[in-house]
Specification:
about 375 residues; five-stranded mixed β-sheet; 15 strands; about 30% helix; about 25% strand
Amino acid sequence: MSVTAPQGFEAAGVVAGLKSTGRPDVALVVNRGPRKVGAAVFTSNRAKANPIIWSQEVVKDGVVEAVVLNSGGANCFTGPFGFQTSHLTAERAAELLGVSAGDVVVCSTGLIGTGDEVFRGKVLAGVEAGVAQLSADGGQAAAEAIMTTDTVAKTVAVSRDGWTIGGMAKGAGMLAPGLATMLVVLTTDAELDAAEAHALLRRATGATFDRLDSDGCMSTNDQVTLLANGASGIRPDLDDFAAALTEVSDELARKLQDDAEGASHAISIEVVHAASEQDAVEVGRAVARNNLFKAAIFGNDPNWGRVLAAIGTTRAAFDPYDVDVWMNGVRVCTAGGPDRPREEVDLAPRATHVLIDLKVGEAAATIRTNDLTHDYVHENSAYSS
């Protein structure tokens, strides 16, 4: 059910001492298959962590042999020393694996500003320990090693006609699009070339991870990497592969949403009959980022007025006095005015569905978010301590 579900991949997760909890904190995913195709999508934040800067260069030639990931420190805003740490991490892994350092992607997650000599030493030691523990059954251990404020490891796999896609993800806070905040590794034993892998990954992330908007905060370390090794010997229909990759990505995005820091509601905001998909996304995102709306859902209050107020801030095409809004199956607003009594809406379940009908076109999109809770504020007020 993880990155080692496809043929020809090994993984490991080990304890390197980066976390004060003593839990696993360094992971490796290694491609042992006949092809070494790699593609990645990175944060669009201008403030990028050192592993992002390193990995952006690695994937340019479409070849990736291995991914090294650590939790317990972001190695961001740690200067040239931090970039050298990412470089040394790739070199150590490459030396032990017998590959080129320029084909090793590096990922880090944790507190920004963490990345001193002690950090470097622990990461490099973790790489050595991880290589020694690589196995075809190591996917779950790797998924556990990249957790930070996550409460559960997030893995998934799907199989189609002789080929498989596997994946693991971490993320529970700072979840906002462009790319959404997370570390994700996707693997497949299908045959793809580098251009196809890049295009299909972009397509999948655009429809899934980029529509997860938990708290509107974009990280410096976001990265989604796809490795394809052709070990199945099967070249899939690209539309079929795209659908499967989107399915895996969507399931991981859902798991990220379900584990959002402090959340008591997982909210899906579905926008229909928009003039364009871009309009639908903009409207959904405006609601997802509205703290008043999110606070109302936390209080089990079907306050549809906050939905209309939020979408009114967008540039999307619609008449605000001809919009319908449903909450958990009850139409609480029609044509910009009250409809069913609020008392009919049950917001007690964690799963919350908001449907917004703009009545101007045929496009649709769904944005995932969560409510704003006391626990979220408490957890993030104490994060660095």
